[in-house]
Amino acid sequence: MSDNILVTGGAGYLGSTLVPDLLAAGHRVTVLDSLMYRQASLNHVCHHPNFSVVRGDIRVESTLAPLLRKADIVIPLAALVGAPLCNADPVGAHSVNHDAIVMMLRLLSREQRVLMPTTNSAYGSGDANNFCTEESPLRPISNYAREKVAVEAELMQRENAISFRLATVFGMSPRMRIDLLVNDFTYRAVHDRFVVLFEASFKRNYIHVRDVSRVFQHGIANFDAMRGQIYNVGLSEANVSKRELCEHIQRQVPEFVFIEAPVGKDPDQRNYVVSNEKLERTGFHPVHTLDIGIAELVKGFTMIRNSVHGNV
């Protein structure tokens, strides 16, 4: 079945992987993106007759409303993502991550479907055993996590909505993010050959960017059975500590050295083991392992060097 799908922020890290997959599946896809990073990450789908793109801001109702009216499905990816960016621009973060989503939900009809990424960083440090399910209390610490929790509560007032609480995403994408933990550590391994770890024993869960695309497609295909629910989305075998992550990378980049020192603190204090059993019971299983992702990142970072502000 073909749907009209609006993807806000569709030129970003997640969207530039998801949008081509949705087009390949036969959907008609419209992307609304401010292109704030001057990215050209959807060049390769401009030839597709079912693809359209609007350059604009999701906070502007006159821009968003007419696009929403044409959509059967909305996937709102547009956001200022991560605690550091949100702390640097708290006003912008609140207006994009919260106010624009609340406006979008107000403008939608009851029949329109919404599949939205939220975050499992809202679990904080989990329970006494650092274990989390979708029923675990939320203890968001950063502004980013608090906004996501508030928006998820608004989202789940709708019957026709699914919330995907994403683990930390990794892997190559047309619009790369080097700041995500697996991507960051692998980049440092390839180019610097070392990293200094703080809170090295802290565990978190991970998910490949292509599996994020797959879970949205799974949600569309199984919407009636999954709607009105929250699902953790991660690799169940990849609840690993920062130290263990570095060991995975070191097996592929033997020259990589990591040392531990009390030099920093995670703004979200993420230290948890996440259960993805609820999602797995719907028939979804990730197919891209941590080691597969690291291998592709090593190849990707052989071609990419983030030297915009460097002297060499």
Task: Describe this protein's structure.
This protein is an alpha/beta fold and 312 residues long. It has a domain at 4-171 and 208-234 and 276-281: Rossmann fold (3-Layer(aba) Sandwich). Helices cover 36% and strands 20% of the residues. It contains 11 helices and 14 strands. The chain has helices at residues 15-24, 61-69, 83-88, 90-107, 143-155, 181-191, 209-221, 223-226, 242-252, 277-280, 290-303, and strands at 4-8, 28-33, 51-55, 73-76, 113-119, 131-132, 161-166, 168-170, 194-197, 203-208, 229-233, 239-241, 257-260, 273-274. The strands form 4 sheets. Strands 3-2-1-4-5-7-11 form a 7-stranded parallel sheet, with helices on both faces. Strands 8-10-12 form a 3-stranded mixed sheet. Strands 6-14 form a two-stranded parallel sheet. The longest helix has 18 residues, at 90-107. The radius of gyration is 19 Å and the shape is globular. It starts with a strand and ends in a 9-residue tail after the last helix. The model has no long low-confidence stretch (mean pLDDT 93).
Q: Which spans of ≥5 residues are poorly predicted at pLDDT below 50? A: none
CATH superfamily of the domain at 4-171 and 208-234 and 276-281: NAD(P)-binding Rossmann-like Domain
**What would you call the shape?**
globular
Helix content: 25-40%
Query: Class of the domain at 4-171 and 208-234 and 276-281 in CATH?
Result: Alpha Beta
What is the percentage of strand-forming residues? 15-25%
Kindly provide the radius of gyration, computed on alpha-carbon positions and rounded to a whole number of angstroms: 19 Å
For the largest beta sheet, what order do the strands appear in spatially?
3-2-1-4-5-7-11
Separate helix tally? 11
Distance between the termini: 51 Å
Q: What class, by secondary structure content?
A: alpha/beta
β-strand number: 14
CATH fold-level label of the domain at 4-171 and 208-234 and 276-281? Rossmann fold
Main sheet characteristics: 7 strands, parallel
Give the topology string: H per helix, E per strand: EHEEHEHHEEHEEHEEHHEEHEEHH
Mean pLDDT across every amino acid position: 93
CATH arch. level architecture of the domain at 4-171 and 208-234 and 276-281: 3-Layer(aba) Sandwich
